[in-house]
Design brief:
The complex is a heterodimer. Helix content of chain A is 23%, strand content 25%. By secondary structure, chain A is an alpha/beta fold. A seven-stranded mixed β-sheet of chain B has the order 8-10-7-11-9-12-13. A seven-stranded mixed β-sheet of chain B has the order 23-25-22-26-24-27-28, with helices on both faces. Chain B has a six-stranded mixed β-sheet with strand order 1-2-3-6-4-5. In chain B, a hairpin with a 2-residue loop joins strand 27 and strand 28. The termini of chain B are far apart. Classes of the chains: A alpha/beta, B alpha+beta. The interface between A and B is medium-sized, with 31 and 32 residues.
Chain lengths: 231, 771
């Protein structure tokens, strides 16, 4: 079992994600350079947070054209596990691997703080061990995290149970006050139709050790490990 | 580059036509020009005159402050690198060292707040990674004019709003994209910073003890390589601008402000650190900050006792038709100058190519201790390095006396009035110097790199060092109002408060960096402030064991002839051997006992004079008088050692500093994080005002479990220097209740107090003065 962490120029959280897999989850992990099309036999791909290519254009818009993303699309089409965190989520929506778009935060400012998420589905390789409605604490850190999709897509996402997480209060209530960025229906993370691709704005990589404020994010990585082991 | 060195020796750069106007444009005095002619033995070329003007500017040469800075302590067994390099370095153990420094970007941040602040962050980050250190954290000390002072003209209030928004946005934009966590720092507001905000950026990075790089050129014949962004016409004469007072029309200087590209800087970071990992490839490296290519060329040569010869045709340029004057003085950002070892240059160039960055060989190291600059093959500058650096003018400016124009005693009657303490506390919690700075620090990524154990909103920032059990703790402090009343005492407080905050986390404060923000040094009373403040810093740093390893001086902080408060800002770094023992700043457990630790000395008799320096006097009374609180540095050192001991022994569950607003504010703020309450009863003969709202030095609040109170008090009072006074308990019910003597003087719902505190800054910012 091997994990691959993509590295774009400007991927600041590549090392953070690598560190969780290596030092906390104790899994084999390697970096994958954006110009390469060889995924080196990795069994799961992490698209990390940060500012790929500086994101001076729409976030993720340039990363979508990176050679490595062509390989990731093929990998995902074959059922490979892909998790995109923050900028990684933005890259996955730009690449068409996930539906919807991440717009500028409703407050128009970058926002970094701890938030709470309500688990909306346990039917995925990332959330299988969680219980329905389980509240997780993770931080967000983004300028463009305001999830949006058209009504037809929203209906489809809801019908197919593909909304993975919503922003909620610590008690698990989905309220406007708990929504940090104006996301449609408090959506914090969504799954692909095949349920093998997850994108989310909050950072499980920054919440995998209690010393950093929360270890809830580790559960997502552990679920990926279990899912791969079961394959 | 011409090959015939013989021919060059006889070449002389074309003399400029020197006029008084030309000298004035370059901020060079007649005396300074005479020195230049004497040093050269001829008339300088225009490029040479430009080079002198930036290198001899106050910003680069420290000509007014250098004689005084010598009084600062700079050594200890942990100091690896003191002042004089890009950043100071201390040994932190386990084979690691940390590089850190604070620098001002005040003037640019007023003219163009976003870019001014952003490039301030960019500049200090380059100072860190040019030494081989990966930036671990940044913090900022910010000073702004008021947002809601109705006595100010509307356009000033509007500008203050724009500066706050722009500066915070600029710091966020740069640091977030670069990928370094920002741990907050401090933000204060005073009327004197209208028109002259302070933006002091601190950065700290980690480097292996034996992998430090220096800004020193060595090895005759070694290639000089330019890397990073292309050179444009931006920022020309930025260093000279930062050395002048602001006048009407300073906004016209906007082209002097540089533009930042944080993505470029991120690539530069990764490429530089990668190239430094190739054994023996890099001989020396320096960033191009103030005075750009000029400064890096002569300083690297001077440090190595050699010279650099550069052909400007090889410098990557963003614009066509730039002349040698412009290229040498450009302050385009995200550039570095690197000396490779001969024969290794291709390996260096390959790494930069991988990261998509420009890297060009622009010259070589020569034996003569000179900078020789060619353009289109023609010699345009030929100057001795020393004449630009060590031989820069050194002024013993007249030091006058400073007496603040305020009353020594409290205005009659103001301290005898009956006060509703709950209302006063509420008002203080909303005060701009006390209220929650969430609006500022939530715009900063404080968690990237996953090392942040204590982020913004705590006493100090605490960062773990991965792969070790250690952490680094860091804090900034500097109360300009106190320094205005008494620069010597105020500066001691700046050191003591920053170090106390670090000690509250359980860390041992070990080193300091300072940013000295003052007015016009040509005024004797300003020099008196500067000199006294440096004395205060020196005394406190000696007493607390925190030598100054570097920093920055920012003078001429005046607008329309009115100076800012003298504002020395101190950054203190501390080492925590066991990160799991970091002490939090907030109450966490109902039932814990609250203990006040203070020096075991008689209370000051002149509390009424000291009370004039408090936030209460400013916010509730609306007056300023008297002196800052007295401080005994030996007691302060004893307190810091005690806090470390208590953390090591897991004795305490929280520790927080009594500062702005006094004990009442400290109690309230300690309850907010966990939404707990406190039931406090203080046995004292002193009045409520003095007990709750004075701001005594060397005083902290700690909490401990009920069963360890006796042991805690015994430990603290053991040697007689400090006293420990249990004053109450943390309660599950979220009410703050404070009794002084026999009278219950404060009773309020914590939720309501917190609401006031957390919304104050945002609501002030939202209430734009549109009417």
């Amino acid at each position: 079992m091997k994990f691959g962490v993509l590295v774009f120029p400007g991927s600041n959280c590549d090392h953070d994600t690598y560190n969780v897999l290596d030092a906390v989850a104790h899994q084999p992990v390697t970096f994958l350079w954006h110009e390469s099309t060889d995924l080196q036999g990795c069994d799961a791909i992490l698209v990390p947070g940060g500012f790929a290519y500086g994101d001076y254009l729409r976030t993720g818009a340039i990363a979508h054209f990176a050679p490595v993303m062509g390989a990731v699309k093929k990998f995902a089409a074959n059922g490979g596990l892909v998790m995109g965190i923050c900028n990684g989520f933005q890259i996955l929506t730009e690449s068409g691997l996930l539906q919807g778009a991440l717009m500028r935060n409703a407050g128009l400012k970058y926002i970094c703080k701890q938030v709470h998420l309500r688990t909306e589905t346990t039917d995925s390789p990332f959330t299988a061990s969680l219980s329905q409605g389980e509240v997780l604490q993770m931080p967000v850190g983004h300028m463009e995290g305001n999830y949006f999709c058209d009504e037809a897509t929203l209906t489809q996402l809801e019908k197919q149970n593909r909304i993975a997480f919503r922003y909620a209060t610590p008690e698990g209530l989905v309220t406007p006050e708990a929504n940090p960025n104006g996301s449609l229906k408090n959506i914090a993370g969504v799954l692909s139709e095949g349920r093998n691709v997850l994108g989310l704005m909050p950072h499980p990589d920054r919440s995998s050790e209690a010393m950093l404020g929360s270890a809830d994010g580790l559960k997502l990585f552990q679920n990926m490990v279990s899912a791969l082991a079961a394959r | 580059m011409p090959n015939e060195t013989q021919a060059q020796a006889t070449q002389v750069p074309t003399p400029a036509r020197i006029t008084p106007e030309l000298l004035k444009l370059h901020s060079i005095t007649a005396e300074e020009y005479a020195r230049i002619e004497q040093a050269l033995g001829r008339t300088p070329s225009l490029t040479e005159l430009g080079i002198y003007s930036v290198m001899w500017s106050e910003h680069c040469s420290y000509k007014s402050s250098r004689v005084h800075l010598k009084r600062l302590p700079t050594k200890s067994e942990l100091v690896v690198q003191g002042p004089g390099e890009n950043a100071g370095i201390i040994d932190v153990g386990d084979g690691w060292a940390c590089a850190f420094k604070i620098e001002s970007h005040n003037h640019p941040s007023y003219i163009e707040p976003y870019q001014g602040a952003a490039t301030g962050v960019g500049g200090i980050l380059r100072d860190i990674f040019t030494m081989g250190a990966r930036p671990l954290a940044v913090m900022d000390s910010l000073r702004f004019g008021p947002l809601d002072d109705t006595t100010l003209p509307k356009e000033i209030t509007h500008k203050n709003h724009a500066v706050v928004e722009g500066v915070v946005h600029g710091i966020a934009g740069y640091g977030n994209c670069f990928g370094v966590p920002n741990l907050g720092g401090e933000t204060r507001f005073e009327p004197c910073y209208s028109g002259n905000p302070l933006v002091n950026a601190f950065a700290l990075g980690l480097v292996k003890r034996d992998e430090i790089f220096y800004a020193k050129a060595t090895g005759i014949g070694n290639p000089v390589i330019y890397v990073g962004a292309k050179t444009g016409r931006d920022g020309i004469h930025g260093a000279t601008m930062a050395s002048e007072e602001f006048k009407e029309g300073s906004e016209q200087k906007r082209p002097n402000v540089q533009m930042g590209d944080p993505f470029m800087e991120k690539l530069l970071l990764e490429a530089c650190l990668e190239v430094m990992q190739i054994p023996g490839a890099v001989a020396g490296i320096q960033d191009m900050g103030a005075a750009g290519l000029t400064c890096s060329t002569c300083e690297m040569g001077a440090r190595g006792g050699v010279g650099l010869e550069v052909e400007l045709d090889n410098v990557p340029q963003r614009e066509t038709g730039m002349n040698s004057y412009e290229i040498m003085l450009s302050e385009s950002q995200e550039r570095m100058l690197l000396v490779a070892n001969e024969g290794r240059e291709q390996e260096v160039l390959d790494v930069f190519a991988k990261w998509g960055l420009d890297a060009r060989i622009v010259g070589k190291v020569i034996a003569q201790n000179r900078m020789r600059i060619f353009h289109h093959g023609e010699l345009v500058a030929d100057l001795s390095n020393e004449s630009l650096t060590d031989d820069a003018p050194l002024y013993h400016r007249p030091v006058g006396t400073w007496a603040p124009p305020v009353a020594k005693e409290a205005p009659a009657g103001v301290l005898d009035k009956a006060v509703d303490y709950t209302a006063a506390l509420t008002k203080l919690l909303a005060a701009s110097n006390i209220c929650d700075k969430r609006w500022v620090f939530e715009q900063y990524d404080s968690m990237v790199q996953t090392n942040t154990v204590q982020g913004p909103g705590n006493e100090a920032g605490v960062m773990r060092i991965k792969g070790t059990s250690r952490a680094l703790s860091m804090a900034l402090a500097g109360n300009g109002r106190w320094c205005y009343l008494d620069p010597l005492t105020g500066a001691k407080h700046a050191v003591a408060e920053a170090a106390r905050k670090v000690a509250c986390t359980g860390a041992k404060p070990v080193a300091a960096t300072n940013c000295l923000n003052f007015g016009n040094p040509e005024k004797p009373e300003i020099m008196a402030q500067l000199s006294a403040a440096i004395d205060g810093i020196a005394e406190a740093c000696n007493a607390l064991g925190t030598p100054v390893t570097g920093g920055n001086v920012s003078l001429y902080n005046e607008t329309r002839g009115v100076g800012i408060y003298p504002t020395p800002v101190l950054g203190i770094v501390g080492i925590l051997d066991d990160v799991t023992k970091a002490t939090p700043a907030h109450f966490s457990q109902a039932g814990d006992v609250i203990v006040l630790i203070s020096p075991n000395t008689a209370k000051p008799s002149n509390w009424q004079a000291e009370f004039g320096s408090t936030e209460f006097a400013k916010t509730v009374v609306g007056e300023l008088w008297g002196v800052p609180p007295a401080i005994d540095l030996d007691n302060e050192a004893a307190l810091h050692q005690m806090l470390q001991l208590l953390a090591r022994r897991n004795f305490i569950t929280s520790a927080s500093d009594i500062s702005d607003g006094g004990l009442a504010v400290a109690l309230a703020k300690a309850t907010f994080r966990a939404g707990l309450g406190a039931e406090v009863k203080i046995d004292t003969e002193l009045g409520g005002l003095q007990t709750l709202f004075s701001e005594p030095a060397t005083t902290v609040l700690v909490t401990c479990s009920h069963k360890s109170v006796e042991a805690l008090v015994g430990t603290i009072e053991k040697d007689g220097t400090l006293m420990a006074q249990p004053i109450g308990t943390v309660t599950a019910e979220a009410t703050l209740s404070v009794t002084v003597g026999s009278e219950n003087v404060i009773r309020a719902a914590v939720g309501e107090l917190k609401q006031v505190w957390s919304q104050a800054l945002e609501s002030r910012l939202a209430t734009e003065v549109l009417a």
